[in-house]
């Protein structure tokens, strides 16, 4: 079997599109071909192909269905695998894995592994990530280039896919015409082919063992194996061991990667525990401060009430004493006047002017009940919940500003908590 090389005589570019259903495979195929060759949004279960001429280059696109589609029966999958190997037998310039941006990576790594298992590990050198939905990068709050988007730590899963494909990627906007996006892709594919010294060939595919029957056991006389090459067992074994070793290395790396992620998860679990404990302690402290604030506020309000009660009771006691003095004076005057009435005429006449004067002096005006004698109840009860809430709000705001006007400071001096102006 002759190797298919990339040369100026043969400018054909053969592209295999792979990806999960809905990732933009058909749309990307259409963008490359410049026409609606593949049905978009169709749950495709057949391999489709399209060809076009772009400048000097003949471009051939093979659009494969989602090979990990759980709806595919085993027989259908076997049939598709056979067809795919046969369609790729003319060589491949690139295997493009379509990955939509702004969506979570799903089973893309498995798809890559599946294709490597089918076509052989050497196909990895021809793999490239083709991001779709590039137009959505422009719709972000701050538009980004694909390189900037990939650098974000949130997109480590996308970076991993790019690394799996040897760092090769391109980005398409299938919903929007972007000048030169296809030409730039073809240029990247040509550079990749140059680096790989040509296309991925049937020879490489056979080396991988994807050609089912192990050549070492083949019957030389079998018609089925006419034209096949045969190699010594030791050579085949050593090639296969090399391949298996590469696959093993990749498995070890994957396991290490998953162990690292597991470690991160365990750390997160511990962190959640200590976070919850710490937060519960703080909640209790904060509520204790609030309870203390309310207790202090109640104490200060009652203290103010007691003070007013004492003050007002004192005033009324003084008024009562004054009244007692008035009544006692009047009693004396009454008694003396009654005595006078019983006295002899000469005595009566003699004492009459003095007695009359005493009677007139005794009819002084009554002392009045002082204004504001009673306790000003609304001062304590009016809007009580609102006032307390407002004060609490001020303190909370002060705490927020970092001026730790701590509620506990009111403990030592309840008076300082009760703003006299509000009473
Ligand atoms: N905005 C946007 N939508 C895309 C792009 N590529 C594909 N789509 C949409 O993604 C959906 C799936 O596309 P399709 O090509 O059928 O994916 P497939 O199942 O992988 O072949 C369709 O609704 C497409 O219109 C893109 O670059 N930008
Ligand atoms: Mg499709």
From TrEMBL:
Could you tell me the keywords of this UniProt record?
A: Coiled coil, GTP-binding, Nucleotide-binding
- GO MF terms, alphabetically ordered: GTP binding
Q: Name one Pfam family in it.
A: TRIM_CC
From the record, what ranges are coiled-coil? 241-340
Look up the domain of life of the source: Eukaryota
Ranges for domain AIG1-type G come to 10-210
Q: Which InterPro entries match?
A: G_AIG1, GIMA/IAN/Toc, P-loop_NTPase, TRIM8/14/16/25/29/45/65_CC
Question: What protein family does this chain belong to?
Answer: Belongs to the TRAFAC class TrmE-Era-EngA-EngB-Septin-like GTPase superfamily. AIG1/Toc34/Toc159-like paraseptin GTPase family. IAN subfamily.
Identify this protein by name.
AIG1-type G domain-containing protein
Gene source species: Onychostoma macrolepis
Its lineage opens with: Eukaryota, Metazoa, Chordata, Craniata, Vertebrata
């Amino acid at each position: 079997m002759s190797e298919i090389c990339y040369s100026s005589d043969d400018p054909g570019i053969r592209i295999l599109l792979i990806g999960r259903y809905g990732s933009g495979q058909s749309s990307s195929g259409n963008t490359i071909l410049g026409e609606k060759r593949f049905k978009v949004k169709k749950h495709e279960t057949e391999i489709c192909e399209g060809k076009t001429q772009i400048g000097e280059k003949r471009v051939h696109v093979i659009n494969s269905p989602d090979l990990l589609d759980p709806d595919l029966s085993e027989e259908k999958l076997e049939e598709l695998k056979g067809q795919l190997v046969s369609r790729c037998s003319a060589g491949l310039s690139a295997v493009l894995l379509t990955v939509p941006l702004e969506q979570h990576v799903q089973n893309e790594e498995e798809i890559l592994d599946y294709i490597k298992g089918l076509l052989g590990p050497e196909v990895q050198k021809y793999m490239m990530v083709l991001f779709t939905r590039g137009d959505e990068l422009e719709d972000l709050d701050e538009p980004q280039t694909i390189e900037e988007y990939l650098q974000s730590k949130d997109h480590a899963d996308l970076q991993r896919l790019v690394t799996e494909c040897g760092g090769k990627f391109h980005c398409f906007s299938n919903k929007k015409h972007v000048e030169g996006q296809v030409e730039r892709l073809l240029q990247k594919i040509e550079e990749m082919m140059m680096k790989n010294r040509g296309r991925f060939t049937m020879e490489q595919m056979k080396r991988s063992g994807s050609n089912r029957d192990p050549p070492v056991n083949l019957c030389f006389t079998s018609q089925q194996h006419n034209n096949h090459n045969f190699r010594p067992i030791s050579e085949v074994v050593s090639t296969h061991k090399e391949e298996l070793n590469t696959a093993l290395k990749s498995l070890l790396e994957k396991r290490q990667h998953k162990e690292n992620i597991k470690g991160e998860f365990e750390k997160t679990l511990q962190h959640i525990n200590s976070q919850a404990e710490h937060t519960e302690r703080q909640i209790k402290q904060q509520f204790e401060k609030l309870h203390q604030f309310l207790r202090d506020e109640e104490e200060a309000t009652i203290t103010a009430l007691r003070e007013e009660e004492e003050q007002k009771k004192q005033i009324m006691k003084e008024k009562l004493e004054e009244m007692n003095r008035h009544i006692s004076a009047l009693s004396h005057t009454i008694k003396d006047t009654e005595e006078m009435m019983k006295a002899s005429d000469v005595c009566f006449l003699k004492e009459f002017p003095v007695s009359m004067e005493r009677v007139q002096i005794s009819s002084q005006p009554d002392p009045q009940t002082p204004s504001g004698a009673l306790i000003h109840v609304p001062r304590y009860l009016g809007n009580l919940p609102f006032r307390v809430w407002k004060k609490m709000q001020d303190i909370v705001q002060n705490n927020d500003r970092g001026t730790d006007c701590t509620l506990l400071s009111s403990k030592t001096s309840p008076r300082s908590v009760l703003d006299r102006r509000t009473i």
